[in-house]
Amino acid sequence: MPTELQPSEDASTDSMNRYNMLVLTLSHQAAQLQTVVASFPDGVMIVDHLGSILHMNAAGQELLGDAPSTHIQEHVWRYHPHTLAGDPIPAEEIPLARALRGERVVDHEYLLQRSDGTTIRVNVSANPVYDQEGVLIGAVSIFRDVTERRQQEAERVQRLRELEGLREIAQATALARKEPAIYGVLVVRLARLLQTDLCVLLMRDDQDDMFKACVPAYGIDDTAITHYTLAFEVVSQIPSLVETDRPLVLDVRDSEISEVHGHILRSFGVQNAILVRLETRGRIIGLIVAGNKSAHQRFTESDVRLLQTVAPQAALAIENSRLYTQARHISVEAQVQARHLARINDELDAFTYSVSHDLRAPLRAINGFTQLLERSLPDIPERARHQLTRIRVNVEKMSNLIDALLTFSRAGRQVPEKASIDTTAMMRDALQLYAQDLLTCQAQVVLNDLPPVLGDARLLEQVFANLISNAIRYRRMEEPLSITISGTQTGGMVLLVIRDNGSGFDMRYHDKIFQVFQRLHTDESVQGTGIGLALVRKIVERHGGRIWAEATPGKGAAFFVELPAPGQPQENQDESEHSIATGDCAGGR
Amino acid sequence: MSQNTALPLAIVLVEDNPDDEELTLAALDEYRLRNPVVVLRDGQEAIDYLFRQGTYAQRTSAQPHLILLDLKLPKVDGLEVLRMIKADSQLRRIPVVVLTSSREEADVITGYDLGANSYIVKPIDFEQLITTVRTIGSYWLIVNEHPPV
To answer: Any CB–CB contact under 8 A between B146 and chain A?
Structure first.
C-alpha cells in the first residue's frame, strides 16, 4: 500500500493531509486486522467475487500443509475435497463457492487430501461478504481439522455398541438352559459384532480329544458341520491360544504364516480368523472361531477386547448348562433309586411274612410230636426224657429267634411316629416290667427326671426295656445291682444315660455288641437272642439319634442314647419345607 | 347248654398242613371230644363241602356247628372262604374260629372285618395247643348257644 502520494500543485495542504491521515489510519487498521486474522486458531480463507483467493491465514496454511492456492479451482484440484462416502465434491459446491452465490454455509464437513497423502476431515463454515451498498464483493470461510475428534467419537460409539452387544450376549446366555441354545445366541451376536460371515463354536470331545464344530453355527450349514474339526494336538501347538485368554488373530495377508495358522485358515475356508479359547476351572472346553471367507477389514484391537470379554462368559454359561443337566440326571436317577428301594422294601415285607409263617409250622410239628411222644411213653428213661426236653427247649429258642428277627426287620423299615414322650414315665414303666427280677437281685435303681423326647412310643418302649433287661442280665453276682438313669438336654437333642455296676465289657468289642447275633458270652450262661442291642440301635437311629456305650470289664457299663427333643425346630422345619414347595409353584407360574 | 343232644355236634377243620391236622386232632382227642371232625384240606374243598357243590354235591349230612379255619390255604385262600361263608344267609350263623399261625395285624383286622367269630393264633407249644383247643371246644360247643342249622 502506498504510504505517500505525490503532492499535487493545485491541491490544498489540508486535503492532502487529510488524505494522508486516511491512508495511515487505513493501513494501521489493515495491519491490525492482518495480525488478528493471522492469530486466528482456525483457518481463514478470503476470496473475491471471482473466486480468486485473496488471503489464507497461517493456521489455514498449516492445516493444508502448503502455500495457498490462487484460486478456488486450484484449491479444489490440489486438495481433492470429497464426501465421507468418497465422492468428489465439485468446485462449485465447496462452501466458499456456495457463499459466493449468497449462501451461508454452516458446519459442512468433508475430507481433504493433503499433499503428503494424509486425509483430514474438515469442518467448514462460509459467509458471503457485502459492501456497504449490498453488493457481493467476496466470501470468507473458516475451517478446522476435526479428524481426531471425529475419530474419538467414532471409537466411543463403537465401544458403546460393543458394550451393548456384550450385554445382550450376557443376558441371552444367562437365559439359555441348553447348550445348543447358548451356541445359537453366541454365534449370531458375535458374527454381527465382529462383522464376520462365519462364527462357530468348537467344543472339545473328551473321548477323542478333538474340537468339534457345534450346531447351530453362523455361516456353516448344519449338514456340513461335521467337516469342521480341529485336533487338540494341532491347537496345542499355539501356546498363545492355549495358555492365555488373549484371542489369536490370523490373516492371509500376514507376512509370516506358520503351518499351523495356515492349516486353521484353510480348515475353515477363511481369509482371516479370530480365535479364542473357552476355559473353565483350568481346563479348555472349546474354542470360538470367527472369520471372513472373502475380502475383509483387519480385526482391530477392539475386536480382540470384545472376544476376550465374551469368551469367559460363554464358557461359564456352557459350564452352568452342563451342571444343570447333570443335576437333572442325578435327580431322575435318585427317583428311580427311591422307587427301586420302595419295591425292595415291599418284597422284603412279603418275604419276611411268609418266611416267619412257614418257619413256624415245622416248629409246631416238632414240638407237638415230641410232646405226644413223651406222653405216649410213660416209662421213658431219664436220659431219653432229657433229650426230648432239649428238643423242646431248642424249638422254643428258634421260635423266639424268628419273632425277634421279624420284629427287627419290621422295626428297621418302620417310619417312627413323632410325638412328645414323657421319658421319665416311660422309663418307669419299663422298670416296672422287670420289677420281679429287680427285686430278686436286690437292685438299687435311681431314676432321675428325664427331659421329654420326640419319638414313637411303641418303639422307644422296646429300647428302654431292652437296656434295662441287659443291665439285669449282665449284672455281677458279687454285688447287688445298681442302675442309675439320668438325662440332659443340649440344644435340640436329649442325652440319656443308663449306668450299671455289672460285668461290663471290653471296649475293643464296643461295635460288635450292637451287631446282630454278636454276643460276648457263651450261649447258656446268659439268656437272650443276641438281637436286642442291634434292634435298639436300629430304632434309635431311625429316630435320628445315636447310641454308644462306655464300659470297664468287671466294673460296669454305661449306655448313652441320644434322641431328638420335641419342640419348635422340628415343627418349623416341616413348615418351611411346605412353604418352599408352594413358593416353587408360584415361581413356576 | 346245647339244644339238640341227639346228634353229636360236628366240627369242620379246614387245614392244609398234615402235621398241624394231626396235632389238632390229637388235641381234640385229648379233650375227649368225641364229636365227628371233618377235615378239609384246601379252600376249594371247604367251599364245595359247605355249599354242597362239586365233589360234595350229593352230601346230605348236616351242616357243622363249628368251623375251625386256617388262613393259608391252597386253591382258595382262607379269608376268601370266610367271606363266602359270612355272605351266605344260612352259613353265616355257623361260628367260625380262625385258627392260624399268622399274628399279622393285617390278617387279624381283615378276619374280624369279614365276620370271624374268633381269631386264635396256633401256639408252638403242644401243651398250649391242647389248652387252646380245649377252651375253644368248651366255649363254642358247650357254653355257647349254637345256632340252629
So the answer is: no
